[in-house]
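Can't paste images in this forum, so I'm doing it all in text. The chain is below; anyone willing to post the predicted structure tokens underneath?
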Amino acid sequence: MLETRDLTIRFGGHVAVDRVSCRFAPGTLTAIVGPNGAGKTTYFNLISGQLRASAGAVVLDGRDVTRWPAPARARRGIGRAFQLTNLFPNLSVIENVRLAVQAAAGVWFDLLTPWPRRRDLTDKAERILARVALGHRAGASAAALPHGDQRKLEVAMLIALEPAIFMFDEPTAGMSVDEVPVILDLIRELKAEADKTILLVEHKMDVVRSLADRLVVLHNGALVAEGPPAEVIALPVVQEAYLGVSAGRG
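Text version of the structure:
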């Protein structure tokens, strides 16, 4: 169970996230939506540890992790994919994923055990690359991949880390229409695993409707609505805040 309690961050006089309390349970996919500047990515950064809260708490499995740095939270099972790709650009595609597999397995570099002998790690990395349709690019440099393939590679690395909580910040951003289904199908596969908790920031409402069990709506840094997608989207406060439709119109 992941929970935020009155989570708040201030930048000078600006309150970017304002006392947001929310729970995220295993086996559910929660889409966090709202207009530009609503605080969605900032809220993600507070949960994953990229930013430190001004007030409130982040609680993971009953333990307060608010002051923990991002690497410590990652080791406790919070996995994060970023809006901008976060790769090792000078390494090959397979090496990027193999490093993530290695980290998940707790295996560190050993001068007495050359990498070719750790075929188990490479085999697992190859299977994950096949899942994201990148097996044919295994030897390519990560920096040489087109943007859509870099997004796939980042998701592959996240899967390799085997987190309990998956956080996707606009995972289909910059991808072509043909590439999007690969990522969405992967997220659906993860959602089918009842022990996984998935948080998704996404602007495309068709994607949100097809994936989400629950919507959380932020506006001006505050939580204004949460619940089943159809019910939340129909709320006047959401129509006005997120869709730009006045509550007084039909």
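The longest strand covers residues 14-24. DSSP finds nine helices and ten strands in the chain.
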